[in-house]
Q: What sequence folds into this?
């Protein structure tokens, strides 16, 4: 049994802005179920304190660079017996807004100080200096908000082994030299082999340079970030870690209990691979919900995402518009929010094709389940995708993904051979023309119900549970300890 401290800036269902939160709940739970002693540590945001009314103070620590002592609160991850520690500094975390941004959407101006404090608290707990009487074997940090922790303990004797996971290299926590000075970090860190990044402070380099091993959330993404196209200026460092054998890609899993068409509480009709015909009832209900004609033979496409360039929403809009201009029997349902221009473009597409396009701006957990269960195919034309979760949900629901061959999408979706083989449809170039070809391939197979159903059943039989991914992490932990 390993003692694993899992550090993350967001954990579902307490605080979530993206896939990091899902991983930070599901992976520790899967490790816990496999007999590991796992503790999660996260900031005590206001939303967490409100959701966890029974959290109790178990320690108080004094951290370098901060005048007031910092409390450690203990609770349990909701609906589990997994220990959850919260770093309670009201000045830094007890505020309205999101974990990283103000209510108006702008980043908190003191994010560097907030997450430097969080990293220092992680380091203190990992070194058993927080009065918790719990000696960590493995410190597993996630994304830039925890990046300083491996650096802070790197030279300490009897430290735990350290692992740093990149969930999205596009977010690096880069700040000015003035911020570095204000954080009272050791001057030795200001070095190209330390935290300095083109004359700025880089939080993520703390994990990439000082952690014993680095992981990403899919094997393909681990290779991609070693290239100029995807490396975001860190490709040289990442290539070096990869050549050492210290950069590994492990595909994320999904919660098979939460995402299970056999007993999904959000959908009209539950179904399985053996009763795949019942999926049609969810399709009809979804068409009605979005005021679209009930057309069983129309290929119903789904899109759930943040509306940002990375996710390729512009490719989806252009390709679907071309299909509809050609009179194809296709419908599209979108759920998401983000860039105002993309939101407007979706509304324009909806206005132009009111019987073919349905749009909801925002996010709704129940609706996301209903879309996965109701649409025939799910589009994910991402320009880059470290792992992706919706394509995994789609496979689970017999909803065939249409994806770019990048990151976790390439690792999890098998391209159709047009004869009933495969689990989805891939395209390579990040262009609307390439996506249009893939959509037409999907439409061709959809018109052959026997072949489409064969692919659905194959997709639903794929196992992307967290138990498999957790086993891969356990093997990595054992390698670290060795």
A:
């Amino acid at each position: 049994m390993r003692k694993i401290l899992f550090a993350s800036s967001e954990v579902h269902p307490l605080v979530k802005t993206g896939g990091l939160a899902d991983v930070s709940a599901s992976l520790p739970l899967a490790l816990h179920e496999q007999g590991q002693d796992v503790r999660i540590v996260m900031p005590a945001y206001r939303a967490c304190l409100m959701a966890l009314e029974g959290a109790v103070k178990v320690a108080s620590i004094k951290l370098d660079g901060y005048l007031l002592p910092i409390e450690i609160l203990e609770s349990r991850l909701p609906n589990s017996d997994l220990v959850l520690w919260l770093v309670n500094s009201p000045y830094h975390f007890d505020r309205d807004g999101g974990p990283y941004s103000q209510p108006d959407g702008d980043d908190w101006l003191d994010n560097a100080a907030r997450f430097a404090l969080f990293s220092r608290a992680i380091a203190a707990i990992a070194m058993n200096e927080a009065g918790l009487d719990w000696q960590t074997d493995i410190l597993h940090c996630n994304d830039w908000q925890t990046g300083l922790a491996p650096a802070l303990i790197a030279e300490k004797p009897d430290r735990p082994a350290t692992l740093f996971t990149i969930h999205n290299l596009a977010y690096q926590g880069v700040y000015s030299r003035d911020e570095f000075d204000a954080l009272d970090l050791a001057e030795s860190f200001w070095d190209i082999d330390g935290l300095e990044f083109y004359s700025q402070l880089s939080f993520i380099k703390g994990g990439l340079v000082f952690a014993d091993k680095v992981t990403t959330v899919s094997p393909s993404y681990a290779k991609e970030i070693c290239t100029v196209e995807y490396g975001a200026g860190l490709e040289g460092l990442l290539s070096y870690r990869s050549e050492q054998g210290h950069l590994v890609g492990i595909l994320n899993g999904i919660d098979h209990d939460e995402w299970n068409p056999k007993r999904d509480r959000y959908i009209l009709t539950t179904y399985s691979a053996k009763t795949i015909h019942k999926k049609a009832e969810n399709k009809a209900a979804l068409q009605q919900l979005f005021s679209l004609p009930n057309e069983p033979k129309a290929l119903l496409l789904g899109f759930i995402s943040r509306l940002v360039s990375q996710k390729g929403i512009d490719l989806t809009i252009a390709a679907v518009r071309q299909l509809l201009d050609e009179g194809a029997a296709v419908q599209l349902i979108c759920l998401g929010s983000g860039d105002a221009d993309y939101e407007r473009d979706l509304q324009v597409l909806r206005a132009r094709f009111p019987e073919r396009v349905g749009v909801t701006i925002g996010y709704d957990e129940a609706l996301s389940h209903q879309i996965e269960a109701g649409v025939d195919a799910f589009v994910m034309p991402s320009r880059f995708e470290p792992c992706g979760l919706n394509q995994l949900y789609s496979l689970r629901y017999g909803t065939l993904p249409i994806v770019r061959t990048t990151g976790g999408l390439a690792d999890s979706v098998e391209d159709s051979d047009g004869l009933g083989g495969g689990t989805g449809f891939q395209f390579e170039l990040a262009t609307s023309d390439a996506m249009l070809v893939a959509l037409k391939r999907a439409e061709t197979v959809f018109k052959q119900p026997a072949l489409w159903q064969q692919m659905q059943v194959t997709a639903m039989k794929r196992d992307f549970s967290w138990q498999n991914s957790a086993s891969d992490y356990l093997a990595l932990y054992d390698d670290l300890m060795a």
Observations:
- The longest helix spans residues 111-126.
- Residues 3-253+466-481 form a domain with the Rossmann fold fold (CATH 3.40.50.2000).
- The chain has a mean pLDDT of 96.
- The radius of gyration is 23 Å.
